[in-house]
Amino acid sequence: MIDNKTSTLLSDVSVEGDIVEKDKIIIDAKINGNIKSEEVETYSNSNVKGNIESVKAILGGKVKGNINSNKIKIKNTADIDGTLSQKSLSIEEGATLKIKTQTKKS
Predict the structure, then answer these.
(1) Is residue 101 predicted with pLDDT exceeding 50?
(2) Distance from first CA to last CA of the chain, Å, rounded?
């Protein structure tokens, strides 16, 4: 049996509503709703309108909403508008950001 499972939503997918994934989700799709997962990774074609809650978030697409994650990595293709709450944050040069950020206490 596989321990870690990954769900993938490609660019031809559009979701209206919240998504809950126990393990990892890769998103290159349009999502209008909140996402809760152990690990969330968005690609450059993704467009998320909603909040993201995870242990680890790697963001490479468009997000309009709040992100609550222990570790957030923002790639240079990202366009983020919202509030970040994290323990660890890294941002690649070139990302478009309109954010407020707060560091969570350990």
Answers:
(1) yes
(2) 33
How many structural domains does the chain have? 1
Whole domain around residue 26: which residue ranges? Answer: 6-103
Asked if residue 61 belongs to a domain, the reply is yes
Q: What is the DSSP letter of 50?
A: S
Nearest CA-CA partner of 48 in 71, 68, 27, 69: 27
Q: What is the Cα 81 distance to its own chain's centre?
A: 12
pTM for the structure as a whole:
0.94
